[in-house]
Amino acid sequence: MGTIKLSKKDRAFIAHQANVMQAEGAQVMQRLTDNPAMFRVPLDQVAIFAAGAFLSHEECDEMMAIMDQLAEPSTLFKADYIEGYRTSYSSHMQSAHPLIDRIEQRICDTLGLPRDKGETIQGQRYQPGQEFKPHCDYFHVEREHWLDNVDRGGQRSWTAMIYLNDVEEGGATRFTSYDAAISPQKGAIVVWNNMKEDGTPNPFTMHAGEPVIRGTKYILTKWFRAGKWG
User: Fold this and answer.
1) CB-facing half-sphere around the CA of 147: CA atoms within 13 A
2) Could you tell me which residues come within 8 angstroms of residue 79 by beta carbon, excluding any fewer than 6 positions away?
3) What is the rounded CA–CA span in Å between residue 194 and residue 122?
């Protein structure tokens, strides 16, 4: 796994983005706290919120059908790829589709973040035995994949994940620092801040998509950046 040496300019950019995410993170936190539909998961040192019925069952069913048409094996950033580390199937969901456009806007409205900071929604499908081993969603700035993302919005700030179905057995999202698991619930959303309050990466956001044992797991994930995406 390649590492890089950060220049003075690189470090200034990273510090600037940390300041942006510190201010923005506080605003999102307040917005989610004030939303009566959102429940804060009681974990120290990491901000995680959840709500049921974020999508209707009909919307979930339509999204799963779209994903089945588009699914292809999931990949990681080239510097992080390890055989068997992520074994799901992914779909990149284009907002030209009316339903995807509505979901994009609903997520942005819930967090109070502009659409131009959000990555394209990604759908993931996990079949029995498939998983995503423990990882953090933020970028490690000392690794090669950071260079690929500096001009694409830079650091990841917030993650929003929607469960599209109930899973017969397995498939929980486990935050490994706490051994705390969130089981899939059709239509529910989970959001968390990948940064600490000061805008720097939070290692307590380490999480895993546990192996599906029975059934199939469908989720949507949208990541936000400190700057404009793409």
Assistant:
1) 11
2) 1, 2, 143, 144, 145
3) 17
Phi, psi of 117 (to 5 degrees): -100, -5
Q: What is the 3-state secondary structure (H, E, C) of the chain?
A: CCECCCCHHHHHHHHHHHHHHHHHHHHHHHHHHHCCCCEECCCCCCCEEEECCCCCHHHHHHHHHHHHHHCEECCCCHHHCCCCCECCEEEEECCCCHHHHHHHHHHHHHHCCCHHHECCEEEEEECCCCCEEEECCCCCCCEHHHCCCHHHCCCEEEEEEEECCCCCEECCEEECCCCEEECCCCCCEEEEECECCCCCECHHHCEEECCEEECCEEEEEEEEECCCCC
Q: Which residue is listed with tokens 């990273």?
A: 14
- β-pair partners for 182: 173
Residue 7: both structure tokens together: 């220049």
Structure tokens at 32: 């989610």
pLDDT in tens, 64-106: 999 988 876 665 544 344 445 556 778 878 888 999 999 999 9
Q: State the amino acid at position 51 in one-letter form.
A: A
- Does the CA dihedral 207-68-223-32 come out positive or negative? negative
- Backbone φ, ψ for residue 78 (5° rounding): -55, -35
| Each residue's pLDDT tens digit, 99-126 | 999 999 999 999 999 999 999 999 999 9
